[in-house]
Amino acid sequence: MRRPVIAGNWKLNKTIGESLDLVRSLKPLVAEVTEVEIVVAPVYTALAAVAAELADSGIRLAAQNCYPEPSGAFTGEVSPALLKDAGCSHCIVGHSERRQLFGETDAFINAKTTSLLRAGLQVIFCIGETLEERESGQMFDVLSTQVREGLKDLTAQQMNNLIVAYEPVWAIGTGKTASNEQAEEAHAFIRGLLQGCFDQETAATTRILYGGSVKPDNVDGLMAQDDIDGTLVGGASLKAEDFARIVKFGKG
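^ thats the sequence. predicted structure below, dont judge the formating
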């Protein structure tokens, strides 16, 4: 059985004080949830403060990005070791906004992934196609390239600390969500890719999340699909009640 993961990506939102208010509201709402792995990803400046606030809870802390080098003359960047020092257990890489807005390549994302795993952090590895790529029939080719290049040279053992997040770019922040069937089709394809890159056991045990306008009113249908093991939530993770409802998917 793959333990579900519900992760909240706060993106460029919330001051330190606002971040603390959010997790203080969230903690009692999900305190009884033990069967789901809960992760929140605040901005860099709030990480250490949120880590301290979450110390007595089951909620895990993620960063939204990192730089692959451990140290050096890289002004403005943050290494995996520094994230771990701030209290992070996870880090998101390859988010579509990093790919689309900042031109990050599969090779760069692979370097970050490798560096994070070496540092002992869990990776939330994002992939996904644009609307143009889907409509032109390139979706499977795009996903295949992102998986093969992004996970290049990783071992099956390292994959124990990696979570894949499928996020169709056309469904992020647009209010559009892939249908349950569209999402399941992509997830099943990705699981097949993992089997080809690694082995059947790795494919069967790797958790694959769906990301793209996930809300309290659509999470139940998504989570009912065989190959969807959780969600990477954007806007709805900024409201404690909405995020808690998503964490408690399937319970009405």
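The chain has eleven helices and eight strands.
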